[in-house]
Design a protein that fits this description.
- The chain is built from 11 helices and 12 strands.
- Strand 1 (2-6), helix 1 and strand 2 form a beta-alpha-beta unit.
- By secondary structure, it is of the alpha/beta class.
- It has a 7-stranded parallel β-sheet, with helices on both faces. Strands 7-9-11 form a 3-stranded mixed β-sheet.
- It has a domain at 2-182 and 214-242 and 277-295: Rossmann fold.
Length: 331
């Protein structure tokens, strides 16, 4: 298979590319990435001889068309993803997430190429804290932020191209990822790297907000299950039953790093902060026989902490700029 991975130098995409090179040596992988602040060549270190890296914007229709014409399938990770950034400046999110997805859709339509589109559970909005309900394939979209609204828009474009033009596409909607190479602006790596760089961790509001955590390797194993066995036109939800409130996650990080679990600062809550996410992944498990490998969140977090401790060469240059940006907004 000749595979095009958009956004393949970002967090989830780079881990997907690494997994593909490791487990499927017959795959010829091309990575298209704009290499903005959230994507880096360094995330693909050691893969120079195994992949082709093309620096470019997913909205560049001529470039995308040429790369799609050369491949058998596209996995579309490319997106702006950070909620705080979308609140400060929504423009880049409309550009990358909506116009970029349109560019990919038109190319796969022209060339009859298989597409898998990566989405997020944030398209559904949030769930109540005190009811045991979960997101399903039929949950209505109700995005809360510019980020999630643009991802919802992208999903709807994919669904329209499937129905109107017969594009051979699938969608996966995944819960919150954690693991190696995640940018230090995100919740878990920000807290870990704060401790490693002698900064006090920060917690939005009371920390009661609940996220459904999944290790990035489990997310990417699900993507391959959908690529190989998924039904065209379907949307599959990906989750690992990893619900934790933010306060508990932060205290666990501090405990695992031999710090007092209350050694952090509260900061003003994010505007429109979603209360709870929870994924019902039963269709993926039952139809495609997928199951997560990282079922012990504490151990997954411990290994993630170890990775950041051992790889300051990667996150160190990002940290000062990220914290300076947060400081301007009092976070």
């Amino acid at each position: 298979m000749r595979l095009l991975v958009t956004g393949g130098a970002g967090f989830i995409g780079a881990n997907f590319v690494r997994r593909t090179v490791r487990d499927r040596p017959g795959i010829a992988a091309t990575v298209l990435d704009a290499l903005t602040y959230a994507g880096s060549r360094e995330a693909l270190t050691g893969l120079d001889d195994a992949i082709r890296l093309v620096q470019g914007d997913v909205t560049d229709t001529a470039l995308v068309d040429r790369l799609v014409a050369e491949c058998d399938a596209v996995v579309h990770f490319a997106a702006e993803t950070h909620v705080d950034n979308s609140l400060a400046d929504p423009g880049p999110f409309l550009h990358s997430n909506i116009v970029g997805t349109f560019s990919v859709l038109e190319a796969v339509r022209r060339h009859g190429v298989r597409l898998h589109h990566i989405s997020t559970d944030e398209v559904y909005g949030d769930l109540p804290l005190n009811r045991p309900v979960r997101f399903t394939e039929t949950t209505p979209y109700q995005p809360s932020s510019p980020y999630s609204a643009t991802k919802a828009s992208a999903d709807l474009l994919v669904r329209a191209w499937i129905r109107s033009y017969g594009v051979n596409a699938t969608i996966s909607i995944c819960s919150n990822n954690y693991g190696p190479f995640q940018h230090v602006e995100k919740f878990i790596p920000r807290q870990i790297t704060n401790v490693l760089s002698d900064r006090r961790p920060k917690l939005y509001g009371t920390g009661a907000n609940v996220r459904d955590w999944i290790h990035v390797d489990d997310h990417n194993s699900a993507v391959w299950a959908i690529l190989e066995r998924g039904s065209a036109g379907r949307t599959y939800l990906v989750g690992a039953d990893g619900e934790r409130d933010n306060l508990s996650v932060l205290r666990l990080i501090l405990t695992l790093m031999d710090h007092d679990p209350d050694d952090f600062d509260h900061v003003a809550d994010r505007p429109g902060h979603d209360l709870r996410y929870a994924i019902d992944a039963s269709a993926l498990r039952e139809e495609l026989h997928w199951a997560p490998a990282h079922t012990d969140f504490t151990e997954g977090l411990r290994s993630t902490i170890a990775w950041y401790r051992d790889n300051e060469w990667w996150w160190g240059p990002l940290k000062a700029r990220t914290e300076a940006r947060y400081a301007k907004s009092g976070q």
